[in-house]
Amino acid sequence: MDKLRIGHGFDVHRFADDRPLILGGVTIDYSRGLAGHSDADVLLHAIADALLGAAGLEDIGHHFPPSDSKWKDADSSDLLAQVVVMIREAGVTGIINVDAVIMAEQPKLKPHIASMRQRISELLHITPDRVGVKATTTEQLGFVGREEGIAASAVCLLARDD
């Protein structure tokens, strides 16, 4: 019998010059990207941590440590694809849904949401209607409000044969 498992993930990266901005596996035309050991896709990182947590596995930093040069400038789409394999090997029988929020003052993300949902659904092998992606500002409060970086939070619901 399938048992439901909930996971939550959160990630944040500061802005950096001379890097592309990649969110949800989609490159967004913007003057700054995000700093990080990999491509710094905060949305895919938050989703990966949600999936890993729901599967009872250690977080993304454990599996893809920044101390390992193998992950330098890694494509987060590839990391998320590996996470999907890991959770299946851990007994997950299905990803029921994923829901995420990106927190950013700039750039405006609404025009990119559909592309992000599509890309995430491809990576997770689920239909786009099972992927929620929303964008919000922090009303100019905190590091996001000061446009110092971007944060993302994600939750997921998994089925697991326990």
What would a concise description of this structure say?
The protein has 162 residues and is an alpha+beta fold. Helix content is 29%, strand content 33%.
Overall geometry comes to: globular
**How many extended strands?**
7
**Element-by-element helix/strand order:** EEEEHHHEHEHE
- The CATH architecture is 2-Layer Sandwich
Question: What would the CATH topology be?
Answer: 60s Ribosomal Protein L30, Chain: A
Largest sheet properties = 5 strands, mixed
Compute the separation of the termini in Å: 7 Å
Count up the helices: 5
Widest beta sheet: strand line-up: 4-1-7-5-6
Which features characterize this protein?
162 residues; alpha+beta; 60s Ribosomal Protein L30, Chain: A; 5-stranded mixed β-sheet; 5 helices
Describe the structure.
With 162 residues, this protein is α+β, with helices and mostly antiparallel strands. It has one domain (2-161): 2-C-methyl-D-erythritol 2,4-cyclodiphosphate synthase (60s Ribosomal Protein L30, Chain: A, 2-Layer Sandwich). Helix content is 29%, strand content 33%. The chain has a five-stranded mixed β-sheet with strand order 4-1-7-5-6. A hairpin with a 2-residue loop joins β2 (21-23) and β3 (26-28).
List the helices and strands and how they pair.
Blueprint: E1 2-16, E2 21-23, E3 26-28, E4 33-34, H1 42-54, H2 60-63, H3 76-89, E5 92-103, H4 113-124, E6 131-136, H5 142-145, E7 149-161
Parallel strand pairs: 5-6
Antiparallel strand pairs: 1-4, 1-7, 2-3, 5-7
